[in-house]
Amino acid sequence: MKKLFFFFIVLLCNSASANSKDQLGSWIDSAERILRAQTSASVLSMAINKAEYQRDFTLLVLTDDRSEQQKVMVRMLGPALWRGNVTLKVDDRISFFEPRNKRTTVMSSSMLASSWMGSHFSNDDLMRETDLATHYAYQLTKSWQQDNRDYHLVELTPLPSAPVVWGKVMYRLYLEDGRVFPEQVTYYRRNDDAQPERTLTYSDVKLMDGFKVPTVMEMRISDKPDEYTRMHYQKIKFNSDLAASKFTEQAFL
Amino acid sequence: MGLYIRLAWRNLLRNKKRSSVTALGITLGIGFCITTLAIMDGLSHDLITGTTQGQVGHIQVHEQDYLAKRQLQQTIENNSQVVAELRELSSVKAAAARLYSFGYLSKGNKSIGVSLLGVEPEHERQVTSLAEQIIDGSFLSQPTPWPKGQALSEEQLALDEQLTEQAIANAFAELDGLDTTSSELQSHTNELIDTLAPLPFSLPNVILGVKLAKNLQANVGDEITLLFETAQGAQQSLDLQVAGISRQGTDLIDRTRMIFHIQDLQKLLQLPNQSHEIAISTIDLNKVDLAQQVISDVLAASYPKLSVQTWSQLRPDILALIQSNQALMGTLVFIIFLIAGVGVMNAMLVSVMERRKELSLLKALGLKGPNVVWLVTIETLVLTFVASIAGLVMGVVLGSYLQKYGWDISQFGEFSLAGVGMTSALKAKLTLNNLFIPVIVMFVIALLAALYPAFSAARLLPAQGMRAS
């Protein structure tokens, strides 16, 4: 009987802490989904600034998270050399289409970590999975008030055997009008690194399709302070009924 | 002296069986040592030529940080001029530029990550045996005719912007549910791309590694598609044709390597007149350090950003492997000799003990102690001498056979040492050192082995010795 009682206490404690963990998890999940919703279609410009080259792309990005399969399609609208290129990701399968020779190349998931079109975003970043909301354990590091907003800094450490490359992620987010906004995400290669490897910053909150969302995302690598890739959303349409046929390789042609 | 040799010879012949068994030990010891050393030298030689001719060349030139980071942009600029200057040097036999990158190769619905290598076919032939590794089809020869890309004119740039605007407008319309497929947009775009990055007139020829070709099920003449990233970070794909299939012998290389004509790869990666590596073959591999000095001096003046390294600096692992092999063989040879030496000592000791009576008699008749030592030592040396000649003959016969025909080890499968593909027949290499070092060492050991029996013979007391039965 004593044992049973003890067991319940433990269970109670567990679920209590699980509750607050769930809270953090759902914050991260909402913050990660702020630019995706159920489905999203957006036009954005991407500026890549590297020592070797500068480049501006215009992209059309479609996402669909309504079913179990997460689908993302990126079509490049300009400039000429890239216009019509399509990258499609359905779960772990990435395919790349080039309109000039109408070839589709299917890449293995080993390519997920490599850079997308020479930017500072990897294939995986761009095809943003809700990785941060699933593969990590959360811990609230700090909470504070600023500009009438509730700010929180959440430390994410990968769950054992999680298929992720980061040892630690610090997620700064704030709550406003009951919605969660991401502000800065710093990625650490190892858990005890003092210096983050890269930093993703969200800024310039604007009204898009009836929702306030950050419209600028900037990725910087700590090793190369002069380099960055900046994505600037120009138009977003949320929760429209995107046809499933848009996310197939047949749609490339 | 002559008397001692005669005496020694007669003594040896008195017990022919024992003498010949001892001699056989020495003969086999020397014969096998010569063969082992010859195989060892052959292996070292194969390793060095495998390294230098297989891939590395004698000397390589790189952009100074290339080897540490191997980034696409760390190239040797003005490649054709640098190579031309190198070819003029008297110590340089041949120089071949190379370009490296990575890509994603597909045929049908199979795709594999590959490493790309661009070579100058004619010059590469003189530096490495790359061209001889072709097992099907043919090696590369001419670069693919490929028009030069041009920057867009003001007008075209304006058109490009206009097309982007139109694509955005189409995309917006698409978001609002309108259907806006526009083939005109793509055809205008294709015209612009043809100006910027024109396609070659024919499909560029490439050589695939044998396992890569097998995994893709690609044969000579097949069309394949390569997805790659240019030096400007643009992802592009291009159709290619398989011209040949090569077998280098190293699993990794045969599984991932794809060879281009360097000019084709330069076009592909948009790195005109640039290379990552210049491999040089010198006149004399033994004077490679001197050649390195000359080349560094020549390049330092006009190209301070380049670094020059010899094969042993580039592949210190090979040199270490050779040295550790030699140390291992040295130990083995020493053990063989030690056993042979103990055999000699045993034989001489028994022989001395058997002849206690007559040695005592000799001493009683006035033979001095040192002379007894001398007699026994001469006996040992004569035995060793005769056995050495037999051993030399055996070593030369066995060694020359292995030098000519090699030792077929192909039943153990293809093998490579430290990434150097080796021939399947282990070939020996006889040198003067290999022949005489075992003989000299055997003599020294025999001499040392003779000392104990000789001194125990010298210490015999004639009175006691003669009485023994």
Automatic annotation (TrEMBL), chain A:
Q: Where is the Uncharacterized protein TP-0789 domain?
A: 69-251
Task: Please verify whether the record's keywords include Signal.
Answer: yes
- Do you know which Pfam families this protein is assigned to? LolA_like
Keyword Lipoprotein on entry: yes
* Record's keyword terms, sorted: Lipoprotein, Signal
Under which name does UniProt file this protein? Outer membrane lipoprotein-sorting protein
Question: What is the scientific name of the source organism?
Answer: Pseudoalteromonas caenipelagi
Signal peptide location in the record? 1-18
UniProtKB/TrEMBL annotation, chain B:
Q: Which residues cross the membrane?
A: 21-40, 327-352, 372-398, 435-461
Pfam families, per this entry? FtsX (PF02687), MacB_PCD (PF12704)
**MacB-like periplasmic core domain segment(s):** 19-141
Q: Name one GO biological process term.
A: lipoprotein localization to outer membrane
This protein's UniProt keywords: Cell membrane, Membrane, Transmembrane, Transmembrane helix
Q: Where does the protein end up?
A: Cell membrane
Q: How is this protein positioned relative to the membrane? A: Multi-pass membrane protein
Cellular component per GO, a single term? plasma membrane protein complex
Q: What is its main location?
A: membrane
For this chain, the family text in UniProt reads: Belongs to the ABC-4 integral membrane protein family. LolC/E subfamily.
This chain belongs to which protein, by name?
ABC transporter permease
